[in-house]
Amino acid sequence: MQRKINISPSPHIHSGDTIRRNMLDVLIALVPATLVGLYFFGLGALIVGSVSIISCITFEYLIQRFLLKKTNSIGDLSALVTGVLLAFNLPSNLPVWMVIIGALVAIGVGKMSFGGLGNNPFNPALVGRVFLLISFPVQMTTWPEPAALSMHYLDAETAATPLSMIKNHFGELPHTIDLLLGNVGGSMGEVSSIALLLGGIYLLVRKVITWHIPVSILATVFVFTGIMHWGVNSAIYATPLLHILAGGLLLGSFFMATDYATSPMTAKGMYIYGAGIGIITVVIRIWGAYPEGISFAILIMNAFVPLINFYVKPKRFG
Amino acid sequence: MKTFKIGGIHPEENKLSAGKQIVDIPLPKQVIIPLAAYIGAPAAPIVAKGDKVKVGQLVGKANGFVSTNVHSSVSGTVAKIEDAMDASGYRRSSVFIDTEGDEWLETIDRTPDIKRDCALSPEEIIAKICDAGIVGLGGATFPAHVKMTLPKGKKADLLIINAVECEPYLTCDHRLMLEHSEEILVGITVSMKAIGVKRAVIGIENNKPDAISLFNNQIQKLSFKGIEVCPLKVKYPQGGEKQLIEAVTGRRVPSGALPIEVGAVVQNVGTSFAVYEAVQKDKPLIERIVTVTGKSVSSAGNYRVRIGVTLLDVVNFAGGIPEDTGKYVAGGPMMGRAVANLEIPTAKGSAGVLFIREGEAAHREMHNCIRCARCVKVCPMGLEPYLLMSLSENSLWERMESERTMDCIECGCCSYICPANRTLLDYIRFGKSTVGNIIRNRNAKKN
To answer: Which site among A7, A8, A10 would you substitute to test the B interface, given the most B Cβ atoms closer than 10 Å to its Cβ?
Structure first.
């Protein structure tokens, strides 16, 4: 009897964990926030979301096939995750061609130019978003007003985001309940704190991410803005709760900063990275030119990750 | 519940044969007794072709201090002394003996009576262990008399018995404990005397509650002094020497040091049993318990096998090779060796034969490292496997040494957990052997 026997070194069993499974879990975790985005921004969210996802997948496929001539990696679902996260970071009234450019920069420049998943130093979706923000500052900072199942896209009523209200000291700040549900102006995926927290908890339970990064970012923001609010001037500086619930902080903390390839490898490194993101975010929000700073903060700290990994070592045995 | 602090995984336990009593394997026509199936210098053969031997008769004499005696496990005629492939894949000098009857040396006490008292001095005990050719039966097969002879100036205060059996599937130690608990306790008492310690702790994972309560009862009922049982939370690789010492005592053996640095000596529970047989019954190490297991094995079980019986003979007695087998593993699934065929002799360190199904044995496609950091999280030595692998790929040996690659115990947690199917341990092993050579050359130059 002739058997084909595999002779490979130990270990001979595997956990069964795959990249695809992890990406699928991230997608599942993004479902609540996606539903909220579709509800409040309706047609616009649907168009921006679909275009972003389709473009990201298409660009990854084309680059793999014709430029890199490598086996196609669409199956690992990472391009799909980038597509969803990019759409989450865009206003739902952004023209289609801009979304496509964002996807090209995210996948082409942010990911594939470095060799694909795992080799990219910066979060691809954020590279795409920041490229668009700098190139098209007006369109990227004009958000549609949330309206249940809106059928408007480019012609949607516009609204200010809570953070721009804080920054420019105008308008009546939204109620906490609206911030929780997502009934505020903003990018498609960042508005509902409850939906994002649900997704974040799912990721923690499934052990796709660990608590170190989100908790250190949120704790740093809480402490920093708390000092500013209670310690310096409560009339000028918003409450820590508002800072945490408004804008993209929760989306960034749970879904963007925790991106495997662009975050540190050790728990200690994650604290440093998370604290850095928290501090830079608050500095930009309070003193910077933009009302929101989480994207820049994550990209800046992404750049420090190799350095953190070089100097911060895990606790060795003995 | 106690356990070690850094890293570790919990793979499916799959202790399929835990409830199966130990069964004797009938004697085959021929046995192949390796003269070097342990760490250290090979034994020198002292028999020649045509010589008649009895069970327990010396056939290979220890060649230096770190070497062990080898005995015949059957009675019969020496057919030849030739190289034969062993589980490591290397061909090593072995004694082939054609079996005739089952005639034992008269000096061996074959009665089932348990002999508790031991009037021998520590030196005499160690001499008997040395004569009996005992090696560590947990897998590393380091000569037991060497381990039990403490280096000058060092003192131990504790003997730790490794009854963890943290490898999935394997149950040979578990069965031995259930069926020979009193002998093991005598073996531990004798070993304590030899090493000069007053206290021994048996570390057992709590997936073996029957063994834990049996030992507790026996220790109390038969009043064994100084021996206690320490139940441990199930976690791999708790059977690693450094991990076990930490789990039981909280002491951490420093990098590159031996357990004696923290006053501990670790002995596998199977070795304790062998010590009992050697010292109290004058029986050399000529047989051991082997688990035959796998998800498709119809009658997974535990077998008492004479050293030198081929694994194929063992497997055939245990119901044959399952149809859907994709890999033969000598040992457990985490640290055992995949072998090309089973016509290799049972060695002193052979704990089991595991059949991995085709699907599970199939090659998994390797992807880019996605830096999920799971390998760092599970490494029980606090290393960074992803980094060591890339250093090894790029031949950066100095950096690899400074990142403490020599601390790696090759437990395989990193490769097990990796979602990108990276063969981390393969590269680290390669790096370790290169770095090890560099260190040896450097030390040789210094001296």
So the answer is: A10
